[in-house]
Design goal:
Elements (H helix, E strand, L loop, with lengths): L2 E5 L3 H12 L3 E5 L8 H7 L3 E3 L2 H7 L2 E4 L18 E4 L5 H4 L3 H4 L5 H8 L4 E4 L6 H4 L13 E6 L2 H13 L3 E4 L22 H9 L8
Parallel strand pairs: 1-2, 1-4, 2-3, 4-5, 5-6, 7-8
Antiparallel strand pairs: 6-7
Length: about 220
């Protein structure tokens, strides 16, 4: 049975954990404040959930979700994540993260920054363009008409398939938008961001995305 580690247990992390335990996955939750602050959450999540330190969540997870503010990615442990699939849910919000020059000039993306920090891991961008509440309310069975779609982007095909399969299991179609460098196509203020699109409409929205400098 796959264990999913969570580095960050806020809105997105806790919702993904609810989806995971509901499908029989074990989860290890962590945050920057320590496992004792997560007892209410793991009690709610039930027997498949435990709380740990960030290092413990990174070590325990077969798949690890990084869902923390962008300004904190340098705190993500490197060695325990080597060789693992790491899901990046992040978006760049300058008012929260401060100005980051290489994102302001669009020479890189948030997920490429995390990949650079984790050179031996397989980073996949996912779950960054859906409101947290929608994760547990808008999923539908595979084949449902108008099923909502979510993107994956990454530089490793096997890692993307692992995350796409998880997205499907959680109730959404997966749309592969290419490499991590294409993640800008679904960042804040783009046509597909937080819109409840089915796969074909999401593909069109991603294709029509413009760089901030061209908006």
């Amino acid at each position: 049975m796959t264990t999913i580690g969570f580095i960050g247990s806020g809105n997105i992390g806790s919702q993904l954990a609810r989806l995971a335990v509901g499908r029989g996955y074990d989860v290890v939750m962590s945050n920057s404040r320590g496992p004792e602050t997560l007892q209410d959450l793991v009690t709610e999540l039930g027997d498949h959930a435990t709380a740990g330190t960030v290092a413990e969540a990174a070590s325990a997870g077969d798949i690890v979700v990084v869902t923390i503010p962008l300004h904190a990615i340098d705190t993500v442990p490197v060695e325990p994540l080597a060789g693992k699939v790491v899901i990046d849910t992040n978006n760049y919000y300058p008012q929260r993260d401060g100005q980051i020059a290489e994102l302001d000039d669009e020479s890189t993306t948030t997920s490429e920054m995390l990949q650079r920090h984790l050179p031996a891991s397989h980073v996949v961008k996912a779950f960054n363009h859906i409101a947290a509440a929608d994760l547990t309310t808008q999923g539908t069975p595979s084949g449902s008409e108008g099923r909502r779609a979510l993107i994956v982007a990454g530089d490793d095909a096997d890692a993307k398939k692992t995350v796409a399969d998880l997205i499907d299991e959680f109730g959404f179609d997966a749309v592969d938008i290419g490499r991590l460098s294409e993640g800008w196509r679904i960042q804040r203020d783009t046509p597909g961001y937080v819109k409840p699109y089915a796969a074909i409409d999401l593909e069109n929205a991603v294709a029509n995305a413009k760089r901030y400098r061209d908006m």
